[in-house]
Amino acid sequence: MIIYDTVSVNRNTEKVAKALAEALKAKGLEVDCSYVKNLDLAAVKGYDCVIAGSPTQMWKPTGTIMQFLGGFAPGAFSGKLAAAFDTQYEGRFMGNGAKGIEK
Fold this sequence. Notes:
Elements: E1 2-4, H1 12-26, E2 33-35, H2 41-44, E3 49-57, E4 60-61, H3 63-70, E5 81-87, H4 97-102
Parallel strand pairs: 1-2, 1-3, 3-5
Antiparallel strand pairs: 3-4
């Protein structure tokens, strides 16, 4: 399952999430890809692997993706594969949102 938030008019994080999903499908994996606002916590629990993506805003992931991920009980992903990615524009004041998602 790929979960993403996207905020820009260009929907860059959505584009990356969907490209990642297509690449994994091309390798023969079953992959669902959803915008975080279209999901509930129960929908994610049955997956063996969860990949979360967010644009970086003010050196961290969006509040929407963090609130969603924060709704899981501690250890909810124990024994599952997980990864995080972020999108950002290159600038002097940019940080890395993926680090916040990993926590």
